[in-house]
Model the fold of this input.
Amino acid sequence: MTIFLDLRATPSGGFVAKEVTVFDGATQQTMGVDELRTHVDGRSVVLVVHGFNVSMDSGVRSLSHWDQLSALPSPHVFVGVLWPGDSRFLPVVDYPIEGGVAMGAGRLLAPFLDEALVAAASVSFVSHSLGVRVVLETIRLMERRQVSTIILMAAAIEDDALSNEYADAIAKVARLHVVASLCDLVLEFAFPVGNPLTELLLSGHPLFRRALGRQGPRTTAALPSSYQLWQAPVPWDYGHLDYLPHSQLGGAIAPPIVPPRAQDAMPTTNPLPWQASWSATIIATQFR
Done:
């Protein structure tokens, strides 16, 4: 069973709901905060957030598959977070609007987690793409003083954001992992185009920043000593949409694994799509 926290006002379209809805992904039955607490109290909660241009149905499917592939052991519990990161127009054109939507989703999620996870043993986050803004905005606003681990995959945010814009959020984090790829064409081309518009609308940073999810942070000076970069080797041709599983699942890759070196071969010879299995095994490795 995958538990989901739904921040969406509608199944498609970029509008944040007024309150969080909790439901069981297997039965589609909603549950109240008290019932959610029976699943998470005393356990290590891992909240997993999808990225930009993902409908509700796609988010449920992808995050359920990731839950299956990562197979977190007890006492960890995987909780999917659905936010309205749908592109209403073209992804590059819509990106500036969705950055603000991601932050709005974080503002909704933070107080809910403070209430629902008050008795959780620990709280961690995994994000993909623009979901990083949902995560960092949530951490910034949560009353909880420490977050155990965050894993930021293909982060569609500036490469200095962890030490500048979101330094206050990172100060709460015990362990930080950034997963990046130089073959991420979305972050190479679409991010620099959309980002200047985002910054003009949101926070006034200098234009044409590079994305965190391509080469990792510009500087690590202000990051936790536990910081670790997982850089996919260029021959793997690891793209922006490879992180989350889609319709066809590859075989699971047994944890633990370590950050790859530039010359490392692909992690499996399985002919089925293996990329999402690799990203899921990063999750499995960190929460073994």
Notes: Residues 3-286 form a domain with the Rossmann fold fold (CATH 3.40.50). DSSP finds eight helices and nine strands in the chain. The longest strand covers residues 16-24. Residues 89-98, 193-207 have pLDDT under 50 and may be disordered.
